[in-house]
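haha ok so turns out i had the wrong file open the whole time. this is the CORRECT one, sorry everyone. sequence first:
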Amino acid sequence: MSDFFVQFTYIAVFIAIIARGFGIPLPEDIPLLMSGYLVARELCSLHFLGPIAFVAVLVADSISYAIGWRFGHHVPRIPLIRHILTEQRLKQAEHTYHRHGKKTICVARFMPGVRSPIFFVAGAFRIPFGNFLLIDGITAIFSVSFLIFLGWFFASSIEWIQEVVKDMRIIFGVGVIAVVAFAVFIRKRRRNKQRQFFT
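then structure:
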């Protein structure tokens, strides 16, 4: 098992889940399953890890929502995120919203492939954040608990999780680079706007 997860269990799970909110292609299902595995191996406490994982999920979802609220349909133009939030995925998410409305938020919690795009569209459509957080939070209670339970229940037979964890350091490294690049992009954009304002 990765030394990183052994030494920084709670932080590692928290970061891995939040990374998805920035558009990094790391489904939160993996760290949640890993959480159950770590609990089963008595490497961490469920009483601490459960709430941490739940909060991390809500933070990640809120980040996707906030990006949609702030940038709307301009996101596909952002270099790193456009590979995840593609025009096709956004159109698919919009179509789902038009057909099913706020129920889409509940369904998205169990759909790893379109989870971030749908939460992004929720922000772009200006769905009240309170409503979004309430619906998402209630659904997350069940999804987070279920995935942690699966990781715990199948801990003795899910060696494939350990294979995934071996690559986690690379994923975290890419994640950090992506976040830094995104921050630099936002900073440059603000500077350009300020220059245009004063010229």
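The CA atoms of residues 4 and 57 lie 20 Å apart.
again sry for the mixup
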